[in-house]
């Protein structure tokens, strides 16, 4: 523990130095004078992510453009520098040594993920998961990315479908991106500082000005929710609080009662993996990397009837951010509770 705190401090000092130096060297340039925008890849309140072509030649560059009026200088520098530090890992989205500020935006360059993000692979209208093989490919690579971050005392804090970038539609190469919320382990974070259905109970419990000491166990929880979504196309619950009936069923299972009736046909191995990653006590929760131990086991029960589909009581994936109204909207279970088999091999068509 002490060792990890010390390492945390070293990493923090290093990050501060890198941010200071990067900030001093940041050039001023106007986007349209240096780049032709080819395509918008994403947008939000923060700004836009665009594919561009440098006007002076060279390969296309993805630029994350953050509106100055909505982004603090330090927040931009932190995100860029963390992305640079993590770029050496194969499963972390690579930042390029290109960053500038314009009159209206801060910008930094990234490699292009040509197949989009995981959200597009699990369209909310289908409410079906991915084939087990694809889920496991994602699981394995993302576990490595998280382990790398956690070994450097960094907590991602925003593990979700939208933030996993794809290099092919078979998920052979996927990367964790968007380090905008990433902070050092041990930092204090407040209530509502993530995406609700991915938030662990210790975060959902926070009230008003309460804070929580940031720990990698927060990412392990969100990672398990992401795996559940990939397997089923649904969130297990809208919010990890006792007021949510699905979460209440799940908590009862954690306390020794039966598997939640609304959970579709996961194998016993997958159930054990999810139970360990979703341990209510963050101090006893398994680390994300433990997923590797379960990759050789089946994750869904042997095929007999129907598909691995959510029950009607699960929370559908209703938007990219994962904000879910909770409760209704899912499909009825086809084939009943027992022996629910492998999900269909291909449910990849985007539908919005
Ligand atoms: N390098 C990339 N290659 C391809 N698509 C990308 C890339 N970076 C981002 N995108 C797309 O843009 C979206 C938004 O990017 P990012 O997650 O970095 O921004 P954000 O800060 O999360 O925005 P939001 O406020 O929507 O959460 C991603 O979900 C993805 O679809
Ligand atoms: Mg994002």
UniProtKB/TrEMBL annotation:
<keyword id="KW-0547">Nucleotide-binding</keyword>
<feature type="compositionally biased region" description="Polar residues">
    <location>
        <begin position="310"/>
        <end position="322"/>
    </location>
</feature>
<protein>
    <recommendedName>
        <fullName>Protein kinase domain-containing protein</fullName>
    </recommendedName>
</protein>
<comment type="similarity">
    <text>Belongs to the protein kinase superfamily.</text>
</comment>
<dbReference type="GO" id="GO:0005524">
    <property type="term" value="F:ATP binding"/>
</dbReference>
<feature type="compositionally biased region" description="Gly residues">
    <location>
        <begin position="324"/>
        <end position="339"/>
    </location>
</feature>
<keyword id="KW-0067">ATP-binding</keyword>
<feature type="region of interest" description="Disordered">
    <location>
        <begin position="309"/>
        <end position="352"/>
    </location>
</feature>
<feature type="domain" description="Protein kinase">
    <location>
        <begin position="35"/>
        <end position="300"/>
    </location>
</feature>
<keyword id="KW-0808">Transferase</keyword>
<dbReference type="InterPro" id="IPR011009">
    <property type="entry name" value="Kinase-like_dom_sf"/>
</dbReference>
<dbReference type="InterPro" id="IPR000719">
    <property type="entry name" value="Prot_kinase_dom"/>
</dbReference>
<dbReference type="GO" id="GO:0004674">
    <property type="term" value="F:protein serine/threonine kinase activity"/>
</dbReference>
<dbReference type="InterPro" id="IPR008271">
    <property type="entry name" value="Ser/Thr_kinase_AS"/>
</dbReference>
<keyword id="KW-0723">Serine/threonine-protein kinase</keyword>
<dbReference type="Pfam" id="PF00069">
    <property type="entry name" value="Pkinase"/>
</dbReference>
<dbReference type="InterPro" id="IPR017441">
    <property type="entry name" value="Protein_kinase_ATP_BS"/>
</dbReference>
<keyword id="KW-0418">Kinase</keyword>
<feature type="binding site">
    <location>
        <position position="64"/>
    </location>
    <ligand>
        <name>ATP</name>
    </ligand>
</feature>
């Amino acid at each position: 523990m002490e060792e990890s705190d010390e390492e945390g401090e070293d990493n923090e000092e290093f990050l501060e130095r890198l941010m200071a130096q990067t900030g001093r060297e940041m050039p001023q340039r106007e986007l349209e004078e240096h780049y032709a925008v080819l395509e918008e890849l994403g947008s939000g309140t923060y700004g836009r992510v665009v594919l561009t072509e440098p006007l002076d030649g060279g390969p296309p560059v993805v630029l994350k453009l953050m509106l100055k009026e909505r982004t603090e200088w330090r927040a931009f520098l932190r995100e860029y520098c963390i992305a640079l530090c993590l770029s050496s890992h194969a499963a972390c989205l690579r930042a390029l040594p290109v960053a500038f500020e314009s009159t209206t935006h801060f910008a930094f360059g990234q490699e292009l993920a040509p197949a989009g993000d995981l959200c597009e692979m699990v369209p909310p209208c289908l409410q079906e998961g991915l084939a087990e093989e694809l889920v496991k490919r994602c699981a394995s690579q993302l576990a490595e990315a998280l382990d790398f971050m956690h070994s450097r005392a960094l907590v991602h804090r925003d593990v979700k479908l939208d933030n996993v970038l794809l290099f092919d539609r078979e998920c052979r190469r996927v990367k964790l991106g968007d380090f905008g919320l990433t902070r050092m382990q041990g930092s204090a974070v407040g209530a509502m500082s993530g995406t609700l259905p991915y938030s662990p109970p210790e975060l959902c419990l926070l009230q008003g000005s309460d804070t929580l000491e940031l720990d990698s166990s927060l990412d392990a929880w969100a990672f398990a929710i992401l795996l559940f979504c990939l397997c089923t196309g649904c969130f297990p619950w809208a919010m990890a609080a006792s007021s949510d009936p699905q979460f209440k069923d799940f908590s009862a299972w954690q306390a020794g009662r039966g598997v939640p009736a609304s959970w579709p046909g996961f194998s016993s191995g997958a159930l054990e993996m999810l139970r360990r990653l979703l341990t209510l006590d963050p101090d006893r929760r398994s680390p994300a990397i433990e997923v590797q131990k379960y990759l050789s086991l089946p994750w869904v029960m042997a095929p007999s009837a129907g598909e691995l589909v959510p029950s009607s009581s699960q929370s559908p994936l209703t938007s990219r951010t994962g904000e879910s109204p909770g409760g209704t909207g899912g499909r009825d279970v086809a084939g009943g509770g027992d022996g629910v088999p492998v999900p269909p091999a291909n449910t990849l068509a985007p539908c919005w």
